[in-house]
Write the structure tokens for this entry.
Amino acid sequence: MAPRARTTEVVEAEGHLIDSQLLNVIFDTVIKWGAKFDVQKFRIGRTNEEPSFISMRVTGPDETSLTHVLEELVALGCRIAGTRDATLVRADKDGCVPNDFYSTTNHRTFVRHQGQWIEVERQRMDAVIVVEEGRAVCRKLRDVRVGDAVVCGVEGIRVVPEFRERDRYGFAFMTNEISSERRVETGVARIADMMREVKQSGGRIAVVAGPVVVHTGGVGYFSELVAAGFVDVLLAGNALAVHDVENALYGTSLGVDAETGKAIEGGHRHHMRAINTICRVGGLRRAVAEGVLRSGVMYECIRHNVPFVLAGSIRDDGPLPETVMDLIEAQDQYAAALEGVKLVLVLSTMLHGIGVGNMLPSWVRMVCVDINPAVVTKLADRGSSQTIGIVTDVGLFLHQLSRRLIGD
Amino acid sequence: MAPRARTTEVVEAEGHLIDSQLLNVIFDTVIKWGAKFDVQKFRIGRTNEEPSFISMRVTGPDETSLTHVLEELVALGCRIAGTRDATLVRADKDGCVPNDFYSTTNHRTFVRHQGQWIEVERQRMDAVIVVEEGRAVCRKLRDVRVGDAVVCGVEGIRVVPEFRERDRYGFAFMTNEISSERRVETGVARIADMMREVKQSGGRIAVVAGPVVVHTGGVGYFSELVAAGFVDVLLAGNALAVHDVENALYGTSLGVDAETGKAIEGGHRHHMRAINTICRVGGLRRAVAEGVLRSGVMYECIRHNVPFVLAGSIRDDGPLPETVMDLIEAQDQYAAALEGVKLVLVLSTMLHGIGVGNMLPSWVRMVCVDINPAVVTKLADRGSSQTIGIVTDVGLFLHQLSRRLIGD
Amino acid sequence: MAPRARTTEVVEAEGHLIDSQLLNVIFDTVIKWGAKFDVQKFRIGRTNEEPSFISMRVTGPDETSLTHVLEELVALGCRIAGTRDATLVRADKDGCVPNDFYSTTNHRTFVRHQGQWIEVERQRMDAVIVVEEGRAVCRKLRDVRVGDAVVCGVEGIRVVPEFRERDRYGFAFMTNEISSERRVETGVARIADMMREVKQSGGRIAVVAGPVVVHTGGVGYFSELVAAGFVDVLLAGNALAVHDVENALYGTSLGVDAETGKAIEGGHRHHMRAINTICRVGGLRRAVAEGVLRSGVMYECIRHNVPFVLAGSIRDDGPLPETVMDLIEAQDQYAAALEGVKLVLVLSTMLHGIGVGNMLPSWVRMVCVDINPAVVTKLADRGSSQTIGIVTDVGLFLHQLSRRLIGD
Amino acid sequence: MAPRARTTEVVEAEGHLIDSQLLNVIFDTVIKWGAKFDVQKFRIGRTNEEPSFISMRVTGPDETSLTHVLEELVALGCRIAGTRDATLVRADKDGCVPNDFYSTTNHRTFVRHQGQWIEVERQRMDAVIVVEEGRAVCRKLRDVRVGDAVVCGVEGIRVVPEFRERDRYGFAFMTNEISSERRVETGVARIADMMREVKQSGGRIAVVAGPVVVHTGGVGYFSELVAAGFVDVLLAGNALAVHDVENALYGTSLGVDAETGKAIEGGHRHHMRAINTICRVGGLRRAVAEGVLRSGVMYECIRHNVPFVLAGSIRDDGPLPETVMDLIEAQDQYAAALEGVKLVLVLSTMLHGIGVGNMLPSWVRMVCVDINPAVVTKLADRGSSQTIGIVTDVGLFLHQLSRRLIGD
């Protein structure tokens, strides 16, 4: 007889269930699948500091529906009552797992193994959990190998959602509505405080930047931030670097002169010449070493030993020698570069922003800045309760941020 | 036999036909209606300064189509060859005109009357031309009275399009593409130059502003511009004034604290209390006089005797005593306030921006700033070749503009 | 000594506090103002049907802060424990109220008067509550008259938030994220069901429509809905009617031929001629009666005795005789037309949509359709938990809706 | 002495210079660089069919400026008067060219070699021209090898801009303004006509599609178009295929049920399971062969032998076995797949749309559909006068298109 050939189960959760609106989502989930809940025990936190606790019996119309409900509840931070270990099943093929594998969220996760709750390492979204030698670790599907012990089902798994903290950084009560009708300077002040705090505590800051940083005149300000030590790693695509180089060599971006706003017919010529120039000397680092490239974001990164990863894309011209055109490799380099990062700024790049968001655990904060509210909404919506979205002009945002952190 | 019972006509045009892309539009128009053109004479301007001249025979498939073509060509600056006077027909009813009335563009227009070409006064879009006592004047349809002599048909009318000037203000070669991927600081520098030049030449500057100016933190910078004399008239709606007052009295806008970004549940209370406070003292001017209102855009306008018109709308709360809720009256006050204006800044308000655009002749420049490119495109597209559109955050734009014009 | 010269108060609330995320917002509000809460009693609804109940002591750092907290909590549905009547203060001036007046939400509200809880009539946002002859009624600030007994402070007021209902109409679990990345057909199916249900139950449906309905080719489909009885009242501006008439008379909209997409230079001529034509016969109704206007949205409304209100704006051409240019009058006519309406469709008009949203109690559902996600977000965010936002092309939306409700 | 140590040059151009607004751009270019023009000869096309011709002397303030002017003029279709061959310089390094290399536009180009004008093959943007064995061919910078004879400078090059044709397909006079305020059905009708015409003339149609096609419910309609033979090649990313498979296997997209609109918490599970399922069987083709995948866009492509290329990106989950993660390889496969294509539909994917746009000569038409006007503007602006942009909901667009081409 299968262990879950039943249609009812008791689940428990504790934490800031109300502050984080988890309790509501938990109830919704039960009802949505046609199941019912019956609260067995509920203890509310009497003050802001106290956690709450719930134990409830969930009854589904059938076993399949109950499984759906339980899968969702576990991802939300509920655990099946009782003390069973997580189910481990061996992968029977490279890059594949059993059908009922547990697909991770980006929240801190524990699995029960041999009677112990062990914390999952390298937490990230959309991974599987492999247990080996007493350790549990997130692994991308493609990196699973035959024989790996993969966590399946819903038992013995405990997710700890990043409970919304009401006080840290003063962000708790900033409106989190994503709108262009907000005072950006207020947000910039908070972000500057946060960046200073992260640096003071020895944390690392990653910036994920699109070429719009260049087009909107942000290069000078961004360069200042790099030079001042506020950027520990730069993640971008080929286009950011090419436009940055074009701007450094010719003063143009997208064929528009940065100072005069004058449009150059066939502005692509500058673009292609910038690529040719860098390729000729053998890459960005060589261009800096040989004095060919003397300003800009890439120059400052190289001069200050700020590591960068440039990921290729289907629209790339060139690419520059440093650009990683094998995307498996690029994803791995991105993920490695994000180790130990405490804060990520995503500046005008949905593509790379989503890519990075997928790699991060929920306790790394992301600040997403874009002039298109739909992009900010989409980035802010990828699972992290710790994302701050700002709808504004990126060039002017960087101007404000540099002014706050460094001064005029 | 009617004078245009024919399907062919000779039309002429001269000016910067190529620079202004008029020649292309003229040819397109002919072909579009199934007509044909045969260029009789063409003289190209040999240098940048010289005008071009064209004379061409247009032949339509039938009289109706030819009329359509001619109507469009006249609006583009062509005139029917020959020396006939404009056709005048008496209005037979208040607020109505004959069906073939000439509907104005916003370009400088002349009508031939008693053998003389006379310039049309109060030029604006979508008006009719009434000739009385040897003068021709634009009149709104609703202001036409029985017996008015209304210009009809296409003869004896000459439109002088505002030819794109290549050098003035250095705007000629700024890219006029409307995009968020532009360096705003470049545009701000040009606009600041233009504002200074207009003021030095004794011209007036109008600002048309929406409440987003307040929400995005622009109040302080806008107030500085008013105090420094860069705003000669303010055209807005009730909402700008109410939000400005709320911000002055409570430091909030849309229920969000401007300094902390903290959201106030039921932030509408501040909004309604601001209205109540102003209504209680009898209006904005009284509130300033009595020391109730001590800062903000409206305060600075009143303190510096900058005239303002607040037009009502269906969404207004209150309204404030100064708001004009009769929209016929509001349109008339707007139009009167725009007399002699040389430059108009439209800040985040499509509604009032379109309203103002309709009232202006094409030789008054408009600068349209909005974070939504579609709004800028729409405003820039209402007929004036003299509109500059900037896609950016309005609060930060005002910060930059104030810095440029006034300093830190 | 004033009755609230204290810094602590016990408040209570009951209902679907968790489902509606009210409990979280209540706690947030307390903490945000630097106050503290101490839960005295909490009873959770054990099943989906059971309500929850909370009683908690709120302690503020000072009396002012506590007042702020209490004002927000009352708007959220909490009531001050105890059994005091609401405070009534006489207005001392027309159009003004005491400074601590209670500003309404759009939720169902009761006030305690002479020991009885009485329901507030004509519930709407941003109004004051006047008690007269044992009845309590929402009144716009401008309609308050000297001597009116106005509800002030926070005692004796009970707001009943529109608790999110999990099952009605099947909307409960539709994602309420506003995004262009959704299948519109799914939403259309639900809206069609809702419209049928409202009509079957004898309810009225209002449509608030902008001119984009015409520009995007929605006239034919919208006309079908009117003819089939799915529209009980039309609220719009002058522009909708003018563009609808232009489309009916000339087949163009914004100077673009609806069938061929061909652009007409100076397309404004059609626009102005349409206005002239309607003005000449004396208005839309006369134009229909005399056979001048033979199709379109306005024609169908008139033919089927569907009442309409056209509100003026600063950008109006004409206006048409039926357009109400006095906006106080227009707001009153809108509000009157909305009496008894159960469902409102807002089609591509932020201005009129916000105006209507302000007039409605929270139990009237609004469906907002616009191609710009920011507009939908803004409309959906004005206080009603009962708004459905759909980001799509309005012309194609109307096509789908008509197909669903009427067929091909 | 260098052959261009002078500051003046005579240039010539002929064609539909006015219709294509080329003459205006040519004059602008001269003035912008501080140069002057003096028209030597101008012959206007007397009718719509006749081309125009210009010869003018351009004089620059210095040699460098004149070179800038000439580079731009050549890209616009002017040629240096006289009969010199193009300058060929040998590449001295793989992947690099001389600094004054000629960077291609996407227009048809001829180079003069050994006294003959030869047409450049494989025309595309941002390439260099290599001459070998009497043939001239576009080559990507990275594919240049030591010793290749690369076209440099501006002499002996003739660009033939794709002159705007006034009649073909009836597109000539469709408004080309990019706006959401247009009737989409009008555009769909024209696109359907064009697709039929391309197929009847034996041409190929490529579709470039983003995952929004799936999210907005377009899968069924797109599948119909594939099955009916209107799609000859599909170019997309990994995400389109993964979402298509998820939709086929689970009926969800982005965790939202396509039929009910119900949101699934942790909807990513379906996404990851879809990937796992396809990886397990060894890819999409195997999944179709084994009956695992039984519907959707990828299924129909495979079933009807429609080739597809899936290009990887930094945000990819999986990827699916068929996805090409080496982007050099992916670009080459895209370019190969586009050989002989006459029409490209770009559906909601800026990234792949730009990539494809870069690869195409200007005489291949592109239709770009996206709900975000900024994306359409950006795609339409990449150099082709032959792009049609439609701002609308992609799901509903595909519904309309399928209806037009196939019926209900």
The mean pLDDT of chain B is 91. Chain B is about 35% helix and 25% strand.
